[in-house]
Design goal:
Structural class: alpha/beta
CATH topology: Rossmann fold
CATH superfamily: NAD(P)-binding Rossmann-like Domain
CATH architecture: 3-Layer(aba) Sandwich
Order of helices and strands: HEHEHEEHHEEHEEHEEHEEHEEHH
Helix content: 25-40%
Largest sheet: 7 strands, parallel
CATH class: Alpha Beta
Distance between the termini: 9 Å
Number of strands: 14
Strand order of the largest sheet: 3-2-1-4-5-7-11
Length: 348
C-alpha cells in the first residue's frame, strides 16, 4: 500500500469520527473501488489492523471481483472484507446482519451521460431502491447516500446551500446523472419519512487525491496531476474562469464518517473545502508555484465553447457550513493536498 495513503488512513481513523460506534459492526459499501469510497473502505479495514479486536466487517458490492482485487490491493485478501458480486439491477440477497449501508456506486464521468444514460440511471434509482429495501429488511442503523453537486443544476447564486436548487431539463439526456441523483435523494427522504430508515446524504464537491484514475479521468484536476507526474505541460483549454472548491480526499473521508454517524436523518450535506474555492486559472498558478523544481509549462488554448456544450454552473461554491456544524473541518490546504497526491503517484 502506498505510504501516502497509509498516512492518510491513520489521519482519518485518528480524527473525531466516532469510530467506537463501528466496533463489531458490518458495513455494506457500493462503489468501494471508486475514487472516493476506496478511502472509506481502506480506513475501515485499517481500523482492524491497528485494533485487532475491533471486528469491523466490510461487504463490498462490486461488479467485477478480479478488477476489485487489483484496486483494493493488499486489502483484497483481508479477512474482514467480503467481495459480493452484484450490479444493483436486481434484489440484493445477503444472509449477513448489516448495520450500515454506504451507497456510492455510480457512473460519474460525463462521457457516459450521452453514450449510456440508462447505465447512469440504474445504480442511482433502481440500485437505491433495492438497497433501501435491504436496509428496511435488515433494520440497519444508518444509510449514507453519495449524491452530487449536479442536483443543483443551473443555480441562480454562486454560493449554494443544501436548500437551494437550480434548473435541470428532464428531457436533456445529459441530465441523466443530475436527475437520477435528485430522484435517489427523494427516495432516501421518502424511506426515512415512511419507514424510519436513518438515511443521510452527502454531496461531495471537487475531491482529489491518490485514488484518482489520472490515466482515464479526463476532468481538469486529474488531467493536471497526470501532466505533472509525467513531466508534461499543462494545457488550459478554456479561459480558466470556472470556479470550484477543491477538497483533499482524506478530509472528505472524515466528513463522510461524520455524516454517517453524527448527521441528521433525512438531511443532505455539502462536502468541500470552502477555503480552497478558486478558478481553474488560479488552480494552475497554485500548481506551478507548489512545484517550482518541476518547471511546469502552461499552454493556454482558450477555446470558445460551442453552443450547448457549456453545462452546469461555471462558478459554484457548495457551502459546507452544515457539515462543519457537525464538528468537521478541513486539515489539508490545496498545496499540501497537491504535494501528497503527486508524491503518491510519483512513488508508485
Amino acid at each position: 500500500m502506498n505510504e501516502t495513503i497509509i498516512q492518510d488512513l491513520d489521519f482519518i481513523i485518528n480524527s473525531d469520527i466516532g469510530r467506537e460506534r463501528l466496533k463489531d459492526k458490518t458495513v455494506l459499501i457500493t462503489g468501494a473501488c471508486g475514487m472516493l469510497l476506496s478511502y472509506t473502505t481502506f480506513a475501515m479495514l485499517r481500523l482492524n489492523e491497528i485494533y485487532p479486536k475491533f471486528n469491523l466487517k466490510v461487504i463490498a458490492l462490486v461488479r467485477n471481483k478480479e478488477k476489485a482485487k487489483k484496486i483494493l490491493g493488499p486489502y483484497a485478501k483481508n479477512k474482514n472484507l467480503k467481495l459480493f458480486k452484484h450490479d444493483l439491477s436486481s434484489p440484493i440477497k445477503l444472509s449477513e446482519k448489516i448495520d450500515y449501508i454506504i451507497h456510492g456506486a455510480s457512473y460519474a464521468s460525463p462521457r457516459y451521460f450521452r453514450s449510456d444514460p440508462v447505465a447512469v440511471i440504474t445504480p442511482n434509482v433502481v440500485g437505491t431502491y433495492y438497497l433501501l429495501e435491504l436496509a428496511k429488511s435488515k433494520k440497519i442503523r444508518g444509510f449514507l447516500y453519495f449524491s452530487s453537486g449536479a442536483v443543483y443544476g443551473r443555480a441562480d447564486t454562486e454560493v449554494v446551500k443544501e436548500t437551494g436548487y437550480g434548473r435541470l431539463d428532464p428531457l436533456d439526456i445529459m441530465n441523466c446523472y443530475g436527475e437520477s441523483k435528485r430522484m435517489a435523494e427523494n427516495m432516501c427522504a421518502s424511506w426515512y419519512y415512511q419507514f424510519g430508515i436513518s438515511t443521510k446524504i452527502v454531496r461531495p464537491a471537487h475531491v482529489y487525491g491518490p485514488t484518482m484514475d489520472i490515466k482515464k479521468d479526463n476532468r481538469v484536476f486529474a488531467s493536471f496531476v497526470n501532466n505533472i507526474v509525467n513531466g508534461k505541460q499543462i494545457v488550459m483549454k478554456s479561459d480558466g474562469s470556472a470556479k470550484r472548491s477543491f477538497c483533499y480526499v482524506a478530509d472528505a473521508t472524515v466528513a463522510f464518517f461524520k455524516v454517517l454517524l453524527d448527521g441528521v436523518s433525512g438531511e443532505a450535506y455539502n462536502i468541500g473545502n470552502d477555503k480552497e474555492y478558486m478558478s481553474i486559472k488560479k488552480l494552475i498558478q497554485t500548481i506551478v508555484t507548489t512545484f517550482p523544481e518541476r518547471r511546469i509549462k502552461v499552454k493556454i488554448l482558450n477555446k470558445k465553447i460551442k453552443n450547448g456544450a457549456k453545462r452546469g454552473a461555471e462558478k459554484m461554491l457548495m457551502s459546507s457550513k452544515r457539515a462543519e456544524a457537525l464538528g468537521w473541518k478541513c486539515a489539508f490546504s490545496l498545496c499540501e493536498g497537491l504535494k501528497r497526491t503527486v508524491n503518491s503517484f510519483s512513488n508508485k
